Amino acid sequence: MISRRLVEKTINFDKPERVPRHLWLLPWAEEKFPNELKIIQQKYPDDIVSAPAEYVKPLNTKGSRHKKGEFIDEWGCKFENIHDGVIGITKEPLIKEWGELINFQTPESTLYLDFDTINSFCKSTNKFVIAGNIPRPLERLQFIRTMEQALMDLLLQPPELMKLLNMLHNHYCKEIEQWAKTDVDALMLMDDWGSQEDLLVSPEIFRDLFKPMYKEYCEIARHYKKYIFMHSDGQISKIFPDLIEVGVNAINSQLFCMDIKELGNKFSGKITFWGEIDRQNLLPNGSPVEIKNAVYEVHNNLYKKGGVIAQCEFGPGAKPENISKVFETWGNIL
Question: How far apart are CA 125 and CA 303, in angstroms?
């Protein structure tokens, strides 16, 4: 079956012929295991791909996002990376004092997409295509202010914070609408809301400040007949009902930080679980039997005539044989 249709049937709980596959690949894995990766990709090809993030003019960035050293993104946020193959963190705020907000500008360059290149890519594949940009208001706040200061800002909520969040949201609305005008199948959101054990902020802060943003992003997607996919790390079970309510179709989350049985009891059939298999412990250290059991745990609790995508991340520490075992097991289920 055509991958695009397979993913659509999964999202709509329409009894797909098999579970769609999606390998999240970090440069670390490409560098460490090029031969093993080639075999995995040949045997278990992806059903989901990302459209190229191509713009009329190159974005104003400096350095390399996944290389050791300093990287400055198109917003001007500076990332420090101590390892090749992964993404660094921001230690120096772009806006240190609120008086500097008057000089802050969002990057207009991200609004001028190369529609021809993006649409040509979509037409060239029968796979399900996700937009190549990622609106991320919480994480962008952290990149601009640093994570520690951003969490303090959300606790204190000075008027300048509200002005900055409004600027971020207005920009992301424009950005997501531009992508919605392309031929991609789905738009993408990303914000890491959870720690290992709970949300980084109270559910009330999420619902007051960020849930209305997500609702508007989803409304834009529905207007253009696009699906909405979202990623968030951590223990986020408290906001699952909110994400479902605003219209998120598929969520990539760290299922093994949460009670998978409880997630299934409450939310299976209401949202698609876009992976994942535990990348903190199982993919680096698990035995073949443990990997197989983990896949069956996800399927038995979350699958409901669809609603599950076989996704896992091939990143630092993961063993190629465990990545292969994940997709082998999914292939034997349906």
Answer: 27
d(CA 90, CA 106) in angstroms, rounded, equals 18
The token pair at 227 is 């699906």
Write out the H or E segment, with its range, that includes residue 250.
strand 250-253
Which residues lie below 8 Å from residue 174, measured CB to CB, with a gap of 6+? 111
Q: Name the packing angle between helices 260-267 and 288-302 (round to 10°).
A: 20
Render pLDDT for 266-277 as a digit per residue (tens, 0 to 9).
999 999 999 999
CATH class, range 3-333: alpha beta
Write the single-letter amino acid at 292: K
pTM for the predicted model, two decimal places: 0.96
Check: CB of residue 213 under 8 Å from CB of residue 137. Answer: yes
Query: 85: pLDDT confidence band, cut at 50, 70 and 90?
Result: confident
- Please report the pLDDT score of residue 294 as a whole number: 98
Give the chain's largest Cα–Cα span.
59
pLDDT confidence of residue 84: 84
- Taking the C-alpha atoms of residue 219 and residue 21, their distance in angstroms, rounded to an integer, is 27
Q: Tell me which residue has tokens 């992508």.
A: 179
